[in-house]
Design a protein that fits this description.
Helix content: 55-70%
CATH topology of the largest domain: Death Domain, Fas
CATH superfamily of the largest domain: Death Domain, Fas
Domain DED: 3-81
Number of domains: 2
Structural class: mainly alpha
Organism: Mustela putorius furo
GO molecular function: caspase binding; death receptor binding
Number of helices: 11
Domain Death: 97-140
InterPro entries: DEATH-like_dom_sf (IPR011029), Death_dom (IPR000488), DED_dom (IPR001875), FADD (IPR016729)
CATH class of the largest domain: Mainly Alpha
Oligomer: single chain
């Protein structure tokens, strides 16, 4: 069972109706009005955030912000425990690669397109990323799902740079 989903379920069961209403309000800029209206519990909200790539196990910052705004220190401790456990589960090599990738993402800025082309990501995929995340440079830089699929299609030449990107 996915530990992050277990965490989200645990957080959801700890939320009151008033807290859910506050979370929905805080997520208005990230989630459309129609989807927010269909949210009936914390799991519904988390499912929408996961679907829109606003939240995932590697990037739980949004969850941390939301729980901090509710002043739910008990739920924040659960998130801390999850993160401590997740850091311990990743092999050292993977942690190093992730740290290196995060440094690149923090520093590449608007030049991410040049890096993507160097990694043999097609212009079509680059355009699709820009279209999907027009105002979110961070998501554009993460190239969600593009680099691994390109690396696999490159075959053995992928063993140089793209391997290990999240």
């Amino acid at each position: 069972m996915d530990p992050f989903l277990v965490l989200l379920h645990s957080v959801s069961t700890g939320l009151s109706d008033d807290e859910l209403t506050e979370l929905k309000f805080l997520c208005r800029a990230r989630v459309g009005k129609r989807k927010l209206e269909s949210v009936r519990c914390g799991l519904d909200l988390f499912a929408v955030l996961l679907e829109q790539n606003e939240l995932d196990a590697e990037r739980p910052e949004l969850l941390r912000e939301l729980l901090a705004s509710l002043r739910r220190h008990d739920l924040l401790r659960r998130l801390d425990a999850f993160e401590a456990g997740a850091a311990g589960r990743a092999p050292p090599e993977e942690r190093d690669l992730r740290a290196a990738f995060d440094i690149v993402c923090d520093n590449v800025g608007r030049d991410w397109r040049r890096l993507a082309r160097h990694l043999h990501v097609t212009d079509t995929k680059i355009d699709a990323i820009e279209e999907k995340y027009p105002r979110n440079l961070t998501e554009q830089i993460y190239l969600r799902g593009s680099v691994p699929s390109e690396a696999q299609s490159m075959g053995s030449s992928a063993d140089s740079a793209p391997r290990g990107f999240p």
